[in-house]
Amino acid sequence: MFSPRGPSLRELCVQALSSVERGYDLLAPKFDHTPFRTPRSILDATAGALSELGPFGDGLDVCCGTGAGMLVLRPLCRGGVTGVDFSTGMLAQARSAYPDATWTRADARHLPFAEGFDLAVTFGALGHFLPSERPAVFAGVYRALRPGGLFAFPIGAPPPFMSVSHWAALGFDVTMRVRNAVWRPRFVMYYRTTPLPAVRDDLTAAGFTVTTADLTALGRRRDGSPQCRLVLARKPVKDQRQSM
Question: Name one Pfam family in it (predicted).
């Protein structure tokens, strides 16, 4: 599961008993050698789907971590690319890997941008926000995009009820809820709090027009449905909320 260059069990335990920010600061130097980093297959599938909608101007990676999203943004964006994260350690790794990008430390629930980007992406970060916090994240991305801008991110289909993946995710979420009930600071990371219908509703409430694209390169389930979809949330050219 982990390469020899990844964190030890002790290091993972220390991280798990820390806050989200402190945990990722500790994990940052070895993060790219763990299974937590977004797989290249997902990045490539996302880039392929977005290439049909671009090119774009300026790009933003929300909760950028060590900068894996740059592999998507840099080929698609003709302008500058920016990553934002609240972990100083993760940003240090990203800055070292991609010195030509702009890196900003900020909480995704309070993004400090206004109409500066044409494409925003995020990978594997939504589980770090409680459902009640998602509206603030989506509202911040909405503000950060120029009119007509696009917010895109992959979201996996829920695993079948009888699959090992379903019970593993359920067990992890239950363990995290127990941990957060008895230990402070909290470490928010859940796998089952971002179903597509709920995410779509929150994006729509933020003002986006939402569609999805099947990421068929990542495979299909037995019923023929895709294993993963790309959520495409478009900021209208004219903000209907302001015209009412």
Answer: Methyltransf_25
